[in-house]
Amino acid sequence: MEPEQTHDQFFGLGIAPRIIESLHKMKFKNATPIQHQAIPLALEGKDLMGIAQTGTGKTLAFVIPIVQKLVSNKEKALVVVPTRELALQVEEIFAKIGRPLGIRTVVLIGGEPIPLQIRALSVHPRVVVATPGRLIDLMEQRKVHLHEVKTLVLDEADRMFDMGFAPQIERILKVLPRERQTMLFTATMPSEILTVVHRHMRVPVSIEIAPSGTKAENVTHELFIVKPDMKKTLLNKLLGQFRGSILLFCRTKLSAHRIVGYLKQHGHRAAEIHSDRSLGQRREALEGFKTGKYRILVATDIASRGIDVKGIELVINYDLPEDAENYVHRIGRTGRAGMSGHAISFATADQKQDVQDIERLIRATLPISRHPEIPAENFISASRSSGGSAHRGFWRARRPYRSHR
Question: What pTM was computed for the model?
């Protein structure tokens, strides 16, 4: 999670001086809009429904009030997240804010030995950060008890429902104390989440920093229409135009593996991250991407929510996402913290409808570009063609991408 460039100081939000001191040590000096609005309400114990796109600082918006409240009582908190990587990042923030104040945290995720997690639970941590599957496993073994949990956070709730965790979430909610504070954070608001809000939250205060489906404002976009067998060639050509870090999304684990192999053959430093990789492999890939060991990280959507890296220059949608809303999540990985970013998408001639779904969601048209060395395609029965629109793309000066509202 990165500090955002805003004018709202952490002072005046009701945050304890010791926590503000920790924030400054972490180089966080300004509160983002979601933090500015959520923290005072969370400190008052209100149920919250925070709607904000990726990279807006949602983690600190719930970590700060949870830690501050736990210092003065004997209660416990539970944070449920969709992926292992996100769980580890949330726990890292809890450690930096809470550990100096004596607040212990445990992470319960798949891919790590259960005996180690049971041992960590035996020292009575005040905060549990968990993925739904592993939490249910340990509940069934009677190794984790939720009757003392007075604060629940459902982070990246839309992603959890996308991944099919609805039954596990319902099961967790049923065993939690009815008298509790619930905070839900999401980038979009599908109907399944509204059901959870109505059934399990007490008159939640809604905070919407950006409308559902809004794209990152500091990101420029372009679209290439190519034959499937030309994607790799186009990719290799485009990579020579960029020098910074690149996050590439594809639909399947097999595609990710093949793309990384192709990139390595052409001299690029690349790694893959998806559900078939072990936790150790995923950690190594993400850490290598952060430190510059790998310039290109190839990911599937299921692993993307834990990728929280500052300074990503380019996001490439090698495959368009199956769900248009994932386009917003993907491009939110660039153009963060006031920095500019760029997103390139590859589409095939039969994907006109997929592109229109994305454009409808973000309320804007994706500019079509073409590469001078790659044969251009047109959408089947498309009203617009790639010819004539290329001048709007990367090969001319990039202009800020503005929504046509």
Answer: 0.65
